[in-house]
Amino acid sequence: MDRLYTTNISSVDALWALIQGQSQNVKDALYQRMEEANRQRKTLQQQQYVSKSLKRAFAELEEARTTNKELPDASDLFKLIDKQ
Hints:
With 84 residues, the chain is mostly helical. It has helices spanning 11-20, 24-67, 74-83.
């Protein structure tokens, strides 16, 4: 009976081998798509960071308003930054 041999090849290695066999035009198109996907990922991360920061700021503002707590003045922070 013949033996079946299976070689474990990672998905990344298989994809790399497939890419290497393509024409330069296909490689260039793939590179452009990967770059665009990377830009979109970075944009999404920045949007999520801003959204989280704004939610936190609005929550602090609402808490200060309901407890009659005075918030620090942002101009004081800018003065500290300018001194450095």
